[in-house]
Amino acid sequence: MSGHNESPYYFVPQPSRHPIMAATGLLISMASLASWVNGEPWAPITFVVGLLWLLYTLWHWFGDSIGESEGGMYGKNVDLSYRWSMSWFIFSEVMFFGAFFGALFYARQIALHELGSLDYKLIWPDFSAVWPNNGPAGLVSHFRSMTPWPLPSINTA
Q1: Which residues contact 133 (CB under 8 A, 6 or more apart)?
Q2: Which residues contact 91 (CB under 8 A, 6 or more apart)?
Q3: What's the rounded Cα separation, in Å, for the pair 98 and 107?
Q4: What one-character DSSP code corresponds to residue 38?
Q5: Under a CB-based contact definition with an 8 Å cutoff, are residues 32 and 46 in contact?
Q6: pLDDT band at 123 (very low <50, low <70, confident <90, very high)
Q7: How many helices and strands in the chain, by DSSP H and E?
Q8: CA–CA separation, 74 vs 9, rounded Å?
Q9: Of the residues 34, 92, 118, 137, which has the fewest C-beta atoms closer than 10 A?
């Protein structure tokens, strides 16, 4: 039962110039951004050029993908592959952040209290097992909460 409108068993696209073009746009944008932060007068212009290059590339890359999909090139196996790929990506992100939160939990709830026990008072008598910890007394200035601007907002963006 092979009809004319049937999609292929699995579609492998032709080699594409889009990844290298996107990487070039990102490189120009990020190098220009770093130069802009350091006060280079040409950097804002090259940053915009790199960003426009990246957007142009993504427009064509997504257009090619949409054209392949609407052209009937993606069958059930490609759809299944995309779904599994996204599922594994989400799973890897959950595990990645789980590791960070697990390390924070370990540092705050287990290691900090262990370091504050009597066994370690001989090694570090001035240590107090409180969070946030200021480190060795006299070496680190007193802890102050960070305001949301500028660094946390920029990092979040």
Answers
A1: 112
A2: none
A3: 14
A4: T
A5: yes
A6: confident
A7: 5, 0
A8: 9
A9: 118
Q: Copy the structure tokens of residue 9.
A: 């068993």
- 8-74: CATH topology is Helix Hairpins (1.10.287)
* Encoded tokens for 124: 């570090």
Distance, CA of 45 to CA of 37 (rounded, Å) = 13
| All structural domains of the chain with their residue ranges | 8-74, 76-157
11-54: per-residue pLDDT in tens? Answer: 788 899 999 999 999 999 999 999 999 999 999 999 999 999 99
For 141, which DSSP code? P
- CA dist., res. 11 & res. 70, Å (int): 13
Q: How many C-beta atoms surround the C-beta of residue 40 within 10 A? A: 12
Query: The tokens 């120009």 sit on which residue?
Result: 28
